[in-house]
């Protein structure tokens, strides 16, 4: 059981890498930002699963989830050019109408991710308590942005 759950964490890490590759290969800004958010969703799933004890905590997996969040927070803002409010997107017009507000939410997300990276060290947070302290604030940034800038479904 233990081994199976560790394997699940490892395959989730592999999935994060794949999502990141997709993100940087795509040229369509809408697809690119959605792929970045998919990798964020996968990292949140992995990190949240470990926080809840559904997946055994592995420091390297904690580190990977944090690193994914940080990379996403740094790249994400580049994929909202003028005109990309049209098309198959869940981004609300508020992103373009209130770009400063959107950038602020993004900066909060980036700051939380950056702090988590610092807490993560070389090997990743040592135990699940340390991981929770680092990753919890990153997860709080999701809803803060989505409630104003993403269509609810
Ligand atoms: C600064 C704003 C912002 C933050 C912070 C943010 N998101 Fe998003 N997210 C968006 C927007 C905007 C979309 C819709 C993008 C589109 O469809 O063009 C989105 C879409 C998504 C999607 C759907 C991706 C897809 O396949 O289309 C997921 C999953 C997601 N976010 C998860 C998260 C999680 C988990 C966090 C926190 C760890 C987070 N987001 C933080 C703005 C944000």
Summarize the structure in words.
There is one protein chain. With 153 residues, the protein is mainly α. The chain has a single domain (2-149), classed as Cytochrome c/b562 (Four Helix Bundle (Hemerythrin (Met), subunit A)). It has helices at 2-25, 29-51, 59-75, 94-97, 99-120, 128-149. It is elongated, with a radius of gyration of 16 Å. The model has no long low-confidence stretch (mean pLDDT 89). Residues 30, 33-34, 37-38, 40-41, 44, 69, 89-91, 95, 102, 105-106, 109, 138-139, 141-142, 145-146, 149-150 line the site of heme C. Keywords: Electron transport, Heme, Iron, Metal-binding, Signal, Transport. It comes from Roseibium salinum. Residues 1-25 form the signal peptide.
Order of helices and strands: HHHHHH
Task: Write the CATH architecture name.
Answer: Up-down Bundle
Q: What is the average of the pLDDT values?
A: 89
Report the CATH superfamily.
Answer: Cytochrome c/b562
Approximate strand percentage: under 5%
Kindly, what is the distance between the CA atoms of the first and last residues, rounded to a whole number of angstroms? 35 Å
What is the CATH topology assignment?
Four Helix Bundle (Hemerythrin (Met), subunit A)
Biggest sheet: strands, sense, closure? Answer: none
Radius of gyration, taken over Cα atoms and rounded to an integer in Å: 16 Å
């Amino acid at each position: 059981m233990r081994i199976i759950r560790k394997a699940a964490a490892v395959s989730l890490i592999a999935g994060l890498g794949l999502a990141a590759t997709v993100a940087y290969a795509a040229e369509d800004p809408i697809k690119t930002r959605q792929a970045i958010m998919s990798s964020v969703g996968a990292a949140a799933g992995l990190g949240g699963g470990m926080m809840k004890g559904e997946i055994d905590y592995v420091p390297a997996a904690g580190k990977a989830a944090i690193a994914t969040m940080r990379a996403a927070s740094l790249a994400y803002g580049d994929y909202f050019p003028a005109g990309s409010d049209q098309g198959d997107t869940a981004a609300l017009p508020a992103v373009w109408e209130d770009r400063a507000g959107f950038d602020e939410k993004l900066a909060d997300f980036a700051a939380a991710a950056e702090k988590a990276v610092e807490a993560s060290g070389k090997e990743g947070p040592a135990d699940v308590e340390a991981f929770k302290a680092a990753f919890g604030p990153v997860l709080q940034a999701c809803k803060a942005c989505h409630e104003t800038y993403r269509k609810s479904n």
